[in-house]
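Dig into what follows:

_____
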Amino acid sequence: MPSCLKNFLNEWQQNNQYFGMLRLLAGLSRLFSENEVPYLDYRIAENVFCKYYSAKNEARHCHSFDAKLENFGIGIKTFVLKNGSSVEKIAEFDKLKSELDLLNGLDLATKLAEFRNRRIEAAEGILNVNEKLYHIVGRQKNLLKVFNYPYELIDIENIRIVDNLPNGNIVRFHDGKNFYQFNRSKSVLEQEFSCPRIYKDVEVDIIADPYEFLEECFKEKLFPTTANEEEYIILPLYSTRTKKKKIVPNKSGLNQWNAKGRGRDENEVYIPVPQPIHKRHPNFFPKGSFKLELPNGSVLSARLCQGKLDKKKGLMSNPNKDLGKWILRDVLKKKIGELVTMEDLDVLNIDSVKIARVSAEFFKITFSNDYESYEKFIS
């Protein structure tokens, strides 16, 4: 039985609607740029791929994949190709900069590889995927060159340093399969992408006056002026009681399994629900149990717990081990009895969760980070 990934690789070039929409949108480049190289925003590339390949869009979440198609994860990128290749950002480690600044050469490359691989493996656990690839929309003069590229863990055993630039700001290394470089000042890890033997050329006719073109297309149509906003809240994965430094308490929250008192399951956790959430969104959660869908499609029974109705301080699953098994084992890859720390969250670039209300008794949970953190949500 061929895998979904194999089916995709066999059929992806036949999707005329996808390539036609890319051609049209790239043709509107004069809305943004005078360059002869078509302009295509990365969000547009992600959205168009998901629509025309019926993939689930994961780009606004904080893990390593932009989309999921059945059992495989996809990283979607668009960038300008020069001589058939480009070096592009694949990960940012700004929260770990102080640790990385202490390392050099092979030690630095090895640590970067460990962090990168852990994020990928966590994303696989979040979405329950076992295969992956990059889908690239390369841009050249009046042309889109579309291709797929292997999405691989960094082979730590085969890392070799290519060079360190004189100012020490850029470290370049290779793992026998891919070239990488790390920019210390930006804490950004980049990878080289080269056009492979199999690709699809999409010729682009950039429209000279896209405004006139759009006026003609939509002269008898009305544009909607408002859109329904998604109803959601952001909850922290750390304690909000400490102001100076974020911490994950040793005996509560994600480490509730380690609390004293009654016997506890090794997977027991809760997600903190701070009082500002109750004050500003008093009717967001129902009074009883509700359904909570994970990013991998599993649906748990959940409820608020610990405290009075309008002050309950934790979100738990029922049974309480179900949510913890997903967070502790599938995502964070923690061993039984091993405490969750703030560093664990920083490595994966997550510190909050987004809870979206679909209906009165059905909610969805995804991880969140600096882009949409609890602190930003409250402020």
The domain at 232-378 is CATH 2.40.330 (At1g16640 B3 domain). The first strand starts at residue 56 and ends at 57. Confidence is low (pLDDT under 50) at residues 224-228.
